[in-house]
Amino acid sequence: MNRIPLLIVALLASLLMMSAQAAATDEQDFNAVEKKIRTLVPNAKTIAISETPIEGVLQVQINADIIYVTSDGEYLLQGQIMEIDSRINITDQAKSGIRMSLLSGLERDDQISFAPENPKYDLLVFTDIDCGYCRKLHNQITEYNEEGIAIHYMAFPRAGIGSNSYDKFVSVWCADDQQTAMTLAKNGDDPAPETCTNPIAEQYDLGRELGVTGTPALLTDDGTLIPGYMPPPQLRQRLEALDATAE
Length: 247
Fold this sequence. Notes:
With 247 residues, this protein is α+β, with helices and mostly antiparallel strands. The protein has 2 domains: 23-93, Disulphide bond isomerase, DsbC/G, N-terminal (Nuclear Transport Factor 2, Chain: A, Roll), CATH 3.10.450; 109-246, Glutaredoxin (3-Layer(aba) Sandwich), CATH 3.40.30.10. 45% of the residues lie in helices and 19% in strands. It has 8 helices and 11 strands. Strand 5 and strand 6 (88-89) form a beta hairpin. Helix 5 (164-174) packs antiparallel against helix 6 (178-186). The radius of gyration is 24 Å and the shape is globular.
């Protein structure tokens, strides 16, 4: 009478044991892969390993970068993984999550904003004072706002900390009227030299950590990176398309 329940109990116990053994094996694999990765990037602040939809291929987050490694730790792969049927870019999704984590806690007071009254979209824009396409974007700031797009500037002086572009951004930040000073600088006029406590160096470092390599670099609320200049109507269309994909 009790044989069937006893068999079920035995089966469950066996499955639990197999699951525990598999988990232990996965953990051992992850540890072995992490050990190998650390020989390549010994100074990495963060290394996080997770599975991918592809059997035998692991995703490795190194700081804000994503690479792939075979589960035996023998081969390293660089590139993007995309699910063909759904057109979902799995690599971009992972990077967006990393960016959102890095951007958490940012305050609007730390940005120089040009926004309509009730924006449909808020974009964080890493910009350089002297970048040609950054100036082109700013010259159309009214059109972006008319499209319902708010632009919130962060500093990314491409020549680096201590450069002339860096000093100009400090002067813009320290001006009594930041928006006017920004427009003046974007029009090619040097802002009045000013100094004060400012976040320019921190913003530049954050941009590099986020993977910004050129300007303008546009970031959406969900961490999507849109590199380069895009005219106002086309940018609105791109943002609407991203919304549709997320639904």
